[in-house]
Design a protein that fits this description.
73% of the residues lie in helices and 2% in strands. It is an all-alpha fold. It is globular, with a radius of gyration of 27 Å.
Amino acid sequence: MSEQKKTVAEQVAEAEARQAAAEAAAALDKPRKPVRLPNVFEALLPILVLLGLMICNFIFDWGLDAHMPCGIALVVAGIVGVVCGHSYKEVLAGIISAVSRTMEAILILMCVGIMVAAFTASGVIPSLIYYGLMILSPKVFLPIGMILCAIVGMSCGSSWTTTATMGIAFLGIGAGLGINPALTAGMCISGAYVGDKFSPLSDTTNLAAATGETGLFDHVGAMVSTTGPCFVIALIIYTIIGISASGAYDATVATEFQNTLAQAFNLSPLLLLPIVLIVVVCVMKMPAIPALLLSILVAVIFGALFQHIYSIGSWLDMMHYGYSLPEEYCEMNDLAAELLGSRGGMDGQMWTINLVILAVAFGGTLEKIGCVETLFGGLMRKVKKAWQMVGLTLLTSLFCDFTMCDQYLAIIVPGAMYRDKFDEMGLARNMLSRTLEDCGTLWSPMCPWNSCGVYQTSILGMGPMKYGPYAFLNIINPIYAFITALLGRNIFWGDGAYTNLLGKTHMMAKPAAAPDDANAVATAAAEALRAEGKIPAITEK
């Protein structure tokens, strides 16, 4: 009887296999609609839908977040992809691929939410605010704050971690000093991102070098040539603003805020150690998620020691839903209620994570169906000069930031498109990687629906429309990069030459790293163009 059942089962399996084989053969025989790039209208349609809905939301005051506009634009992009010959499965694969690239960032978002709650409840952030108000004054707050954010960002290689720790604390210090919160947030963004760009530990720094197929330190050195001067310019602007704004400072605001903090928490300089720990473990190259988890554990231990929170249930509740300052202290000081009334928690990050997934899925669809190639491929063929190539790369990265909604795509897509063109024009690969970051990374927090803009909004409590005008470094950097290239300055050539800000061209110690075939093409192109007088001659040895 068991042998008979086995035979029947085998027969069923064989029948199913034959049916599957027949369906597969039929699918191969069936002519498939050819896949093509979208035309200009098709490429622009999903983008116009997104921007149109966002503009209508602003004009008619619908009160919407960016979630539904992104979701509707995603559906439109998928329909365009099908019209252009892609199957539903291919479009879905593009979405999944894009979202999978950001999965680590999503996990980091969850960890950051937990960390903010733990750092607030344990007294770490309140202590940083309290002692910061004792040391800093309105005149020096902005420049010193930018420098400190840059140091932390460079040490840990993460603008996100910097704003989640130093950014929140500086918002409290700035409020106590009478500084416009949007100005403080813009300062934190500027400092965090310049530190991120100078750090060999940064994920986007490594990604840009990998996309440009150049050496990591070749890329960092090239970044210094644009971001370095912009850092100095931004620092001067913040210093001037701080000096001019110091006359409106009311010391009683800071004193009352400090008194509330002192009553609500047991404060101590030792509570600053968890922030130091973040920097240390990142310098030791511990991955981001384990580093955050370790910092959370230390914050919990410090919270038990200093704030006497011993209940595991209380800690788990705060990590999930966030920390809430007791009502009596909120009533005591409006500033404390605004800044510490409800902070962090994994659940509080869900709004951010939902928008990140939708925005990145939209960007992945645009990447899959080839919208960028349609809109910028023709322009690339018309580019003849170095400044035009720099401008086109900056423009493409900016376009990707605002349409593909992810800084990784703003680096990867134009980098892959323009690598060969940079070689043909005799430009070095670190010139490409630098240009990708000059706009792709630094403008990512300036877009309200970009994953970076969404994250910074959740951390700083305000969006790019508010802090963006004060993020001077992020604004200035791509403009500076384009203007210097337009003037024929600050250019790295494929044969190892560099044209500095004074227009003098000299050979570097060694050319920027590049694949052998790319290096050969770029070197030959640079030498030929120099012989024809189309690029600067070597004037310094």
